[in-house]
């Protein structure tokens, strides 16, 4: 591995690590003396050499070799201007320098400033932008020219304006939710902020980390050295958080982040909606490039401004006091400093700004007030007596020269961005006005793409199989070929796991238990050979031409494996020997919370969500597509001449066929906006004196003593038992029998008047009622990326935004009403409908998997709909999918909500 040397400067307070390439300055200075004229030639002759929106998001290909080891030890770190700088851990490892106090003198001199600017070759970028490659194309000036010392001062003034809501709303979120946000940052983490700026907002997060007593190494990355130094000095000192500066570009910061090994958890900060400086493709590429440097479990907190009211955005970037205008116009003055001559007369320009609603971006321009010519003189000091070369640029009256774009993102665009870059969203905090969001995304061990990106109408791709196998790595006769050897594995592992709960001696047929099980090594070898064989089928279209029958087999194999991945977790969660998922930390710090309570002598109480709202649904007013069940997919027609090559029609299981629109439309009903929680179920157990009835205690609970208080009850998770002090607001996982008992108790408490003032019945919803609610949600509310399925969280919570919406007043539209409706996700939803064919006559049993459904049409199994946190998106997002469990299964990832019928 190559070794990168970094210079570490220690001032009277902060330590600064110089990330810039050692040769970049010299090369850039040479270009400024000899190569400026070539800039004009280059942009004319090379149409690919176009102006990037700074800071430019690097493409994925540019970072294929970014995993260069940065050995930042005392041997290769040069300490300048004060060698007695304090460090975090007593070493001079550049990755641990912070808060050093030294008597070293200032190091910000003219040469350093020139080298910082020339490393970007700003003169070349300016001339390129003013000489576009395509004749007549719009001219541009790099956004970077806005940020000299005066520009930074003006921008800081902008952030205090009422009109510039972005800063105010981000501060509001950090002040309100800072403690919740930092719960997701593990102790002993490295936190790197991209484009740190004044740190006015960052200090709120650092204070929250201090309150949590987390040991953190914080690095502020910025290009402007003087501003970086002043900002770090303004932070003061912390007991647990150690601070240092990173002087360099985003790309150099990318290399620095990659220098930390997998044992060091990292969190990136990208605040201030800086993502808006990149267009939508650049933003995707930038996040994708940084994702490669992150390890599994690493976080990224990103501030994003929404597509808000056009007038509000316009005023935010063109305030009445004219500070934004002065900020932008100062860039013209800075250009003359950068180029070292009077190149631009700013009096011949004016600031012009507009919000482009269609593109979703604010646009800032210099508007030419009169036709004139710009002349840049390039001197060659190496040739005596040679006349100066000139670059001449014609400008027309009213011509617009772009200097900045600020892209805005709708919630749907944001969700799509994270899905495309395979970053799992684990948190979202929104300002009270719903104009600005902070998103916390994480690199997870595997990523199940939602159905919008992984087309469910065709068989699963190799990428989907790979991600599924990543998630499974603990554990077909269609081709008319023999089973993979050893063939007897097919028999011993083909075992039923659905005994009759009332009579466990009754179970579906399965092979005899072998006297000796195969070795782990032979099973792993078998698994790998099966996977290789499956990929050969997908790769070799000559030997295995893809048709509908083959695609169905692959679809069945994929979904069945995904379902068993979930059911395996039912067993693992109940075992005290199960280890937490690697590199996916729990977002709560229970030990720290208990320590805080001990210090305050406060009693530990149950966490409780806001009360669930009741959403009214009148099926008679809905489109017939929302009332239907199932979908048309006849397996028997796969080989028909007109169907055999159809790979676009969606697949489904036999119990989903056919599409049925019931002749009897359900009556109007009200449904709870969320599932019943552990805290609510605990109240039911206490009120009805059922805490001593073993059959009524959910198997998802772990009881200490008699369980008479919340402190004695915990919820079983992959992270171990979580007390009701934290898990009380989660939906309760229980059997259908227990859910039905709760419904009866609730009816006895509230049934006399109901929510409408009339006598009501409260019960579990029917399959039809719950299906209508889920379809209405899907049809009216865009995905947010916070839906808890596909292992976006590893425990059964619903998303915070939904919980926040539960306190809203009665809604005036179906979309507003369904905003408060949670699901699918967290836990499956029990219904009161027995699992049976959708049609009484003519049910087509699967020939490829004959017993998949028909074995369970026994009256003991009820339909469950939706998804749990461990459900694959292919299943969770297909509204026709029907799951089922026995009514008295003690432990499944299923909860419930009630309906009210008058």
Please give the share of residues in helix: 25-40%
Q: Could you say which structural class the secondary elements and strand pairing correspond to?
A: alpha/beta
CATH topology of the domain at 6-21 and 40-110 and 126-310 and 410-442: Rossmann fold
CATH superfamily of the domain at 6-21 and 40-110 and 126-310 and 410-442: Vaccinia Virus protein VP39
Radius of gyration: 31 Å
Describe the structure concisely for a colleague.
Helix 2 packs across helix 4.
Can you walk me through this structure?
The chain is α/β, with parallel strands linked by helices. Among the domains are: 6-21 and 40-110 and 126-310 and 410-442, Vaccinia Virus protein VP39 (Rossmann fold); 313-327 and 341-402, no CATH class; 462-574, no CATH class. The strands form 6 sheets. Strands 3-1-2-7-6-5-8-9-16-15 form a 10-stranded mixed β-sheet, sandwiched between helices. Strands 4-14-11-10 form a 4-stranded mixed β-sheet. The chain has a 4-stranded antiparallel β-sheet with strand order 17-18-27-22. α2 crosses α4, α5 (149-158) runs antiparallel to α12 and α14 (462-472) packs parallel to α17 (548-574). Residues 22-119, 381-386, 474-479 and 800-812 have low confidence and may be disordered.
Features:
902 residues, globular, EgtD_Methyltrsf_superfamily, four-stranded mixed beta sheet, alpha/beta, ten-stranded mixed beta sheet, 26 helices, Rossmann fold, MeTrfase_dom
List the helices and strands and how they pair.
Elements: E1 6-10, E2 15-18, H1 24-34, H2 36-45, E3 77-80, H3 110-118, H4 122-130, E4 139-140, H5 149-158, H6 165-182, E5 189-194, H7 202-211, E6 216-222, H8 225-234, E7 241-247, H9 250-258, E8 266-270, H10 280-293, E9 299-305, H11 310-316, H12 323-339, E10 349-356, E11 361-368, E12 372-378, E13 389-395, E14 400-407, H13 411-420, E15 424-430, E16 436-442, H14 462-472, H15 489-492, H16 520-539, H17 548-574, H18 590-600, E17 614-617, H19 624-627, E18 669-672, H20 678-687, E19 701-703, E20 713-715, E21 722-723, H21 724-727, H22 736-750, E22 761-763, H23 767-780, H24 800-805, H25 814-819, E23 828-834, E24 861-865, H26 873-876, E25 883-886, E26 894-895, E27 899-901
Parallel strand pairs: 1-3, 2-7, 4-14, 5-6, 5-8, 6-7, 8-9, 23-26
Antiparallel strand pairs: 1-2, 9-16, 10-11, 11-14, 12-13, 15-16, 17-18, 18-27, 19-20, 20-21, 22-27, 23-24, 24-25
Helix pairs in contact: 2-4, 5-12, 6-7, 9-10, 14-17
